[in-house]
Amino acid sequence: SLVTAIGTEARALYNLGQAEGLTIWSPNVNIFRDPRWGRGQETPGEDPTTASKYAVAFVRGLQGSSPTVLQTSACCKHASAYDLEAWNGAIRYNFNARVTAQDMADTFNPPFKSCVEDGRASCVMCAYTTINGVPACASSDLLSRTFKGDWGLNGYVSSDCDAVALMHDAQFYRPSPEDTVAVALKAGLDLNCGNYTQVHGMAAVRQGRMTEQDVDRALRNLFAVRMRLGHFDGDPRGSALYGGLGAKDVCSPTHKNLALQAATSGIVLLKNDAGILPLRRGVVASAAVIGHNANDPGALNGNYFGPPCETTTPLQGLQGYVQNVRFLAGCDSAACGFAATGQAVGLAASSDYVFLFMGLSQAQEQEGLDRTSLLLPGKQQSLITAVANAAKRPVILVLLTGGPVDVTFAKVNPKIGAILWAGYPGQAGGLAIARVLFGDHNPSGRLPVTWYPEEFTKVPMTDMRMRADPATGYPGRSYRFYRGNAVYKFGYGLSYSKFSRQLVVSGTGNKAPNTNLLAGLAATPTADGGASYVVEEIGADGCEQLKFPAVVEVQNHGPLDGKHSVLMFLRWPNATGGRPVSQLIGFRTQHLKAGEKASLRFDVSPCEHFSRAREDGKKVIDGGSHFLRVGQDEHEISFES
């Protein structure tokens, strides 16, 4: 897999003496709570189920399969409820996030819990964020009771860089540097990124603010991870498991092919009016390629990246399919303060097909920088519209962005025939886009975030509430709770083929759900007159007995072979009492030839998938009806209460 390749290359570079260490501070599994967040591009999106599955795969890929020897050490960051850089005077270094126990339990913490419990991550990084008045890196509740106690972290807790210094200098949490270092280490911090603990730690011990035992605990955790990495076993090339990794394992043909696969799989087809795509190779006599993102290698990378093995820009990708290609950047940059609209219109009018490569860059979204608007910057929209009006046939718009953009103008304009979102697709991005445009890859990507309209920017970014509050007009956040209109919904994505899906819960060889199991348990009344059951009280054995399989029968009706992503959701009968509108509980992807059928099995665990968080953060299952949903197909499951 892709993350296995990352772990392999990291260890290979270390063996070659080209890496300073093996502790990799990745993945970022914060929830993409607000569409303006500059670092949302680093994350797997707004959904906790997706983020959790991504976290586990990422950690296992980096750390390797040995239970005792680490290939590298992965670190899940930034725990927790960190998703603001700088907005309207609020900055990440001293922002106090007011978060409910309910939102912590079912939105912000699940990816980190999965990282540790299922992925066996050897590190968790605490965030700059102050959560309900307590800096994350000074919270014994978070670091010791939750990470190390409840979840069983076998490894170390690191601070984000200079987070301990900021507790004193920006958050004024403790009166002296010595008190600050002591409160962090005693809370469970093992490593401070920066030099603050080195400078003030000895004085903190001498003043009795902390003990040598507090320091010893941190050292034990840090050196235990170093031992698991083999730091004290001599030349790393002598390692039985990883010593053979070297230059042949970096930028190998297999890994370069993986980069291409990842980029093509991540492309989402948002619009394809009248089936303008896919194009046929010999049919496009001439092409105009317009846009600042068309031939900028740096635009493919996003904000955290290693040096690419090789890079193919979108322009270069298209030149492999079309002989007569003319290029114009159109904008001076993604900010598009200046647009060469006249030139672009002339080029479009004299070309057979027009491809626009627009979107954002790190000048609009990155670490330390949030957006204030969801619209395309500067004169991009007017340039796109003018080009579309001048072109001989509907144009094709490709967006390179990390976060969502409001492109309602393009969605409703019939002169814009197709829209694709490619994210920041990495070194093979240009080739991946060309392969999708010309049908060598049938798109199967789905949006990992809701694409909100520009009016969402009226919502304060500092309001951490996930759940809607209709009484005050607060619309809620993410597909799970948002009550407003969306430009494109979470999970949306088109294909060149037509697929059908049918959900089957019980049948030949399938165990039917045991819906009577909860009837003998003590129920807690809910505010709407129903009953709920605390998951902890159901117990491990009871939760195991509740599990059942659900099968989705999928068929590709053609015309092209391709992958299909099946998303299974849970819907409650009503979204009152803090219940989500719906919740993704699983996803599977299957490649099907045209005309082929397949049965995809989902293992449903009601304790995990049917539970919701109460206001106190406790997970409960409601008595009564629940609905499994795949597409428009629903199946009711009712628990006796």
From TrEMBL:
It comes from the Eukaryota. One of its GO terms (molecular function) is xylan 1,4-beta-xylosidase activity. The keyword Hydrolase applies. Transmembrane segments: none annotated. Keywords: Glycosidase, Hydrolase, Signal. Residues 564-634 form the Fibronectin type III-like domain. One of its GO terms (biological process) is xylan catabolic process. GO terms for cellular component: plant-type cell wall. Coiled coil: none annotated. This is Fibronectin type III-like domain-containing protein. It comes from Aegilops tauschii subsp. strangulata (Goatgrass).
